[in-house]
């Protein structure tokens, strides 16, 4: 029993234990301390990067703002594009970079460069964004394909099992695409689903959707030339 050992015997026992286990104990302590401070450094570094990206993102938003009815100036567009590119280059894994890519896509659309706009949105989707941003990206990419008359590609972007709050927007665009393909029945069904899926905050879109639905109904009932009987 340890309590029956003399002070000298206890000291010798401690020396033997330290000889056998001391190095591994030191290594364990060193690893634990290094891990703790490494984690602290990583967290601090991540926070610093997030703050830096946030500042650039805010600058980008401010540079892109224009008065109602006006278009962005060439200088502001260049500044906005530069800042968005910086977010993608230096903070690629952040939400700010994904928003930067969407801004670059918007600028590309305004410059009628739809291929570049599509490339930016595909980059966003490749980053595995959160669900809401992914839905927005699919919707915008579908609009680009629709503008390019790539109807099947556009419909492919809209094949989402549950579009959630974007359901009305998805179905509205789907109706436009199907109508462009000559599928009036499919377009009518899509517009109807869009109407019943409108959120309270989307009330302003109701009148336009109702007009689209009525136009499809009228078009579907008007007899084709040469079909009337005398």
Concise account of the structure shown:
75% of the residues lie in helices and 0% in strands. It has 230 residues and is mostly helical. The N and C termini lie far apart (120 Å).
Structural write-up:
Among the domains are: 56 residues, no CATH class; 70 residues, Methane Monooxygenase Hydroxylase, Chain G, domain 1 (Up-down Bundle), CATH 1.20.58. It contains 9 helices and no strands. The longest helix is centred in the N-terminal third of the chain and has 58 residues. It is elongated. The N and C termini lie far apart (120 Å). The model has no long low-confidence stretch (mean pLDDT 84).
Q: Notable features of this structure?
A:
230 residues; mainly alpha; Methane Monooxygenase Hydroxylase, Chain G, domain 1; 9 helices; 75% helix; 0% strand; elongated
User: Got a strand count?
Assistant: 0
In N-to-C order, the SSE pattern is HHHHHHHHH
Flag low-confidence runs.
none
Specify the CATH class of the domain at 152-221: Mainly Alpha
Helix content: over 70%
Second rung of CATH, namely the architecture of the domain at 152-221:
Up-down Bundle
The fraction of residues assigned to DSSP E strands is under 5%
**Number of H/I helices:** 9
Q: How is the secondary structure organized here?
A:
Blueprint: H1 7-64, H2 74-90, H3 95-110, H4 114-126, H5 131-147, H6 151-157, H7 167-180, H8 184-197, H9 206-221
Helix pairs in contact: 1-2, 1-3, 2-3, 3-4, 4-5, 5-6, 5-7, 7-8, 8-9
